[in-house]
Amino acid sequence: MMPAAFAGVETQLWLWMVAMIRPGAAFLAAPVFGAPSVPVQLRLVVALAIGIPALAATHFVLPQGGVVSFEGVLLVAGEIMTGLALGFAVQIGFSSALVAGEVIGNAMGLGFAGMMDPASGAPTPAVSQFLSIISIFLFLGIGGHLQLAAIIIESYRALPPGEAWLGARSIQELALFGGELFAAGLAIALPVGFALILVQLVMAMLARSAPSMNIFSVGLPATLMAGLVLLAVAAPSMGDGITASIQRGLATARHLALG
Q1: 68: closest CA among 20, 18, 22, 28?
Q2: Which of 56, 73, 101, 122 has a CB 3.0–4.6 Å from the CB of 131, allowing a cystine?
Q3: Number of folded domains in the chain?
Q4: What is d(CA 194, CA 200) in angstroms, rounded to the nearest whole number?
Q5: What is the C-alpha to C-alpha distance for residues 47 and 257, in angstroms, rounded to an integer?
């Protein structure tokens, strides 16, 4: 027979598990939190610290059959879907820097130079890695991690556990915002990419005017040097573009959280 002091322990543990699902799913898909370098234990502790007060603010009652019942499975599925949608919306705004890095790297001739991205664990071009690190600093600098936590807490008001099912309009909005990823990446890369295209046009005219000149031995160093100088000159405007893209991702996540 279970002692009376431990009668509510099982129910409390189930409540804690439910409280961790939505923040944990959001952190899994969100930038910075979802990086492979972030320990899973730390991610679970932060998810629990955010989920417990958010769940306590709602009138939540466990299903009769518990989480393993049919109602419990639907509850867990809705929590996972909502959390992933919130984190993925922020990730879309964050990933525009990677698209910009791909464009600039290919224009500079550094498409072959790959590095391991600590945020995703996948190999990316060197310029994308550079812009990804800048995006992490900007995300933390504008308080994006705190805004994401606030968005998750706000989502419990409009989408309480058991009713956290995104409508077709919200899913369509998230899909359309994903289409803006490429436009935002090109806008960030425009100052450097357009100038590099002009440099390549100059190299092409030199190759036509002096056919005996080895254009590869001259064009690649010139393009690399021009790209590095342009990256330094255009860094403020590119930083503003990355910040605006991250803020659009946070705004989309907040709109999804409001149902």
Answers
A1: 18
A2: 101
A3: 1
A4: 10
A5: 17
Which residue range forms the structural domain that includes residue 43?
A: 4-257
Whether the CA torsion 111, 114, 116, 118 is positive or negative: it is negative
Q: What is the four-CA torsion angle of 84, 87, 92, 96, rounded to 10 degrees? A: -150
Kindly report, residue by residue over 86-116, the tens digit of the pLDDT. 888 888 888 888 888 888 887 777 666 555 5
Q: What is the CA radius of gyration of the chain?
A: 24
Distance of alpha carbon 11 from alpha carbon 151, whole angstroms: 27
Separation between Cα atoms, residue 156 and residue 152, nearest integer Å = 7
- 3-state DSSP assignment of residue 77: helix
The rounded distance, in Å, linking the Cα atoms of 50 and 83 is: 13
Closest by CA to 95, choosing from 156, 61, 139, is 139
Q: Which residues pair with 114 in a beta bridge?
A: 125
The answer to whether 246 touches 93, Cβ cutoff 8 Å, is yes
Global pTM exceeds 0.70: yes
Tell me how far apart the terminal alpha carbons of the chain are, to the nearest angstrom: 45
